[in-house]
Amino acid sequence: MIIAIVNSKGGVGKSTLAVHLAGWLSEQGYSVTLADCDSQGSSSVWVAEAVPNVNAVRLTTPNEILNQLPTLEGEADFVIADGPGSNSETSRALLLRADFAIVPCKASMLEVRALAQATEVLRQAQDIREGIPEAKIVLSMVGANYRLTRDMKEAAAALDLRVAKTAIVLRQVYADAPGQRALVWGLGARGREAGTEIRSLFRELLAERKVKKKRRAKAPGRRPARKKG
Ligand SMILES: Nc1ncnc2c1ncn2[C@@H]1O[C@H](COP(=O)(O)OP(=O)(O)OP(=O)(O)O)[C@@H](O)[C@H]1O
Ligand SMILES: [Mg+2]
């Protein structure tokens, strides 16, 4: 399964979600590849340091994405693709291959208003592929007492997008984790609340996808064997 984390808006939490999702799936015993599709290359560096069991690859052009994602999918249970902050051709290529798209979105009025534009390539892919990839908005960097506002609900409904029940709160520990070469749940008491919320988000997202394992889960800690040729 290929899960793409996309939003043409920059700085909304794509890489943070991608690295944590890859790490969480790996801890569940799945073989996971993180495809870093952002030319900045930050998530592949972070995942290599924080979760060495995850196979990290960089795919920086639309052609690389279209050509290589199917092979990577055949080699791992999950490919988590971290999308770029602006390049829509890269996002388009990703969405033509993805099975499921996670769209992190800040909950501010400006971001909500920009949602139609930020998800345009997603709708084009869904139109071409008859509804695939299914997509879900994840509200990110919300206040601790955030409640889904009517504006947000209406904006999402107008675009035929669903919003995950679990939101990711603005917490300093998320911003500190890459510098610590860790995931938030590896940072002890500081990361406990963040770890609980982000893992419950992943359980929610994957439960609804009814994920079938393509191959038997491997024992945690084992790298997937790479195919030759
Ligand atoms: N829930 C959060 N709370 C606080 N800081 C966060 C949170 N999520 C992400 N950040 C921080 O916000 C910044 C942007 O996050 P991230 O890099 O994950 O976004 P992105 O969408 O991948 O950005 P880009 O479009 O540039 O690739 C980073 O400094 C990150 O550490
Ligand atoms: Mg990023």
| CA-based shape | globular
Q: Terminal Cα separation, in Å?
A: 22 Å
Mean pLDDT: 90
What is the element string, with H for helices and E for strands? Answer: EHEHEHEHEHHHEHEEHH
Architecture, according to CATH? Answer: 3-Layer(aba) Sandwich
CATH topology: Rossmann fold
Give the number of domains: 1
Q: The biggest beta sheet, please?
A: 8 strands, parallel
Residue runs with pLDDT of under 50 for 5 or more positions: none
Helix segment tally: 10
Descriptive report:
With 229 residues, the protein is of the alpha/beta class. It has a single domain (2-209), classed as Rossmann fold (3-Layer(aba) Sandwich), CATH 3.40.50. The chain has helices at 14-27, 42-50, 62-75, 88-97, 109-113, 115-118, 120-128, 150-158, 172-176, 192-209, and strands at 2-5, 32-36, 55-58, 78-82, 100-106, 134-142, 162-163, 168-169. Strands 1, 2, 3, 4, 5, 6, 7 and 8 form an eight-stranded parallel β-sheet that branches. Helix 1 (14-27) packs parallel to helix 2, helix 3 packs parallel to helix 4 (88-97) and helix 4 (88-97) runs parallel beside helix 7 (120-128). The longest helix is centred in the C-terminal third of the chain and has 18 residues, at 192-209. The two termini are 22 Å apart. The mean pLDDT is 90.
Topology overview:
Layout: E1 2-5, H1 14-27, E2 32-36, H2 42-50, E3 55-58, H3 62-75, E4 78-82, H4 88-97, E5 100-106, H5 109-113, H6 115-118, H7 120-128, E6 134-142, H8 150-158, E7 162-163, E8 168-169, H9 172-176, H10 192-209
Parallel strand pairs: 1-4, 1-5, 2-3, 2-4, 5-6, 6-7, 6-8
